[in-house]
Amino acid sequence: MMSKLLMVRPCCFGFNPQTAVNNAFQVPSGEDPALVREKALLEFDHFVALLHKHNVDVIVVQDTPEPHTPDSIFPNNWISFHPGKMAILYPMYAPNRRLERKKTVFQAIQEHAPRIRWIDMSPRERENRFLEGTGSMVFDRENKRAYACRSQRTDEELLRQVCDTLDYEPVCFDALDKGAPIYHTNVMMCMARQYVVICLESVPSMADRQKLLETFEKDKKTVVEITAAQMNEFAGNMFQVFSRDNEPFLVMSHRAHKSLTKSQLKVLRSFNKMITPELDTIEIHGGGSARCMIAEVV
Predict the structure, then answer these.
(1) Which element (helix H / strand E) includes 149?
(2) Residue 177 host element (H or E)
(3) From the CA atom positions of the chain, what is the Rg in Å?
């Protein structure tokens, strides 16, 4: 089950006010924008080098200065790939994020995955309805489920349309951070082959919690629960990848790794080794972490 990952190397990374309105993980630091761009680029290159070191296949596409796309480093939000050479394009909340669907990225995709059948949901942006890819949805591909917490960026009807297309079961619930809806499911939940990492503390409804736990039990998933404080250190924004030798690795930022307890790490290490890049600049200014930077090419 070798992973092939699509990553976009940034040229214009920076704090995006269009996404900050409902992404509580973004922090305006007041730092010099040129320095932020430089530090983010170093973090990106180090992350890619770590993946290569662990024999993980990565397709890197260089972003272009025009049109200006400060969040291009997070391609998982606007595209997802599926068996049968199918890809879905998603409707994005922020107008400047819609510009990330660039010709250069499509050319790289066609080179590595030719003859793709495209399903384009982006016209729903004109209706102010949004579903931001594997940010909004956390896929359990083996059990054909799509987990999603409702938010301004995750339209439940569009979720069900995707699930109908993929023959998946939607598992929809509410999740809050400091009383506000969590903008993306993948900051509070990570689905791996044998386990799930989740911040149940952020799910206010006991019925929703029970539904989630029953589904995990049915699918024989070990549950690794994280706290809201750990979620805010990006401990939910993890992703399991597989090397060319099919060795599993759990990818998370160094910041997320530091927030985990010894007992949590022991459980996670029983399933896979870890890749933990430093992503502080990207996390602070972009409000996303390791999982957000990866689009899995199936």
Answers:
(1) strand 145-149
(2) strand 176-177
(3) 18
Gap between the Cα atoms of 274 and 249, Å rounded: 5
Global pTM value: 0.95
Q: Length of the chain in residues, anyone? A: 298
Residue range 49-95, pLDDT digits in tens: 999 999 999 999 999 999 999 999 999 999 999 999 999 999 999 99
What is the β-pairing status of strands 79-82 and 86-89? antiparallel
- The alpha helices in 101-220, defined as continuous H runs, are 103-112, 133-136, 156-166, 206-218
Contact indicator for 1, 83 with CB cutoff of 8 Å: no
Matching residue, tokens 């510009």:
99
Peptide linkage before 67 cis (omega within 30 of 0): yes
In this structure, how many other beta carbons lie within 10 angstroms of the beta carbon of residue 39? 18
What pLDDT was estimated at residue 18? 87
Contacts of 71 (CB under 8 A, 6+ apart): 13, 16, 19, 77, 94, 96, 97, 100, 286, 288
- Contact between 2 and 247 under an 8 Å Cβ cutoff? The reply is no
Q: Residue 166 corresponds to which tokens in the numbers above?
A: 């993929």
Question: Which residues have CB under 8 Å from 123's CB, separation 6+?
Answer: 91
Structure token digits, residue 86: 């199918």
Partner residues linked to 8 by β-bridges = 61
Q: What is the pLDDT of residues 171-199, one digit of tens each?
A: 999 999 999 999 999 999 999 999 999 99
Domains of the chain listed by start with CATH number = 4-296 (3.75.10.10)
Rounded Cα gap, residues 192 and 241, in angstroms: 9
Evaluate whether 174 touches 181 at the Cβ level (below 8 Å): yes
Residues with Cβ within 8 Å of residue 207, at least 6 apart in sequence:
none
Contact 219, 168 (CB under 8 A): no
Number of Cα atoms under 13 Å in the Cβ half of residue 177 = 23
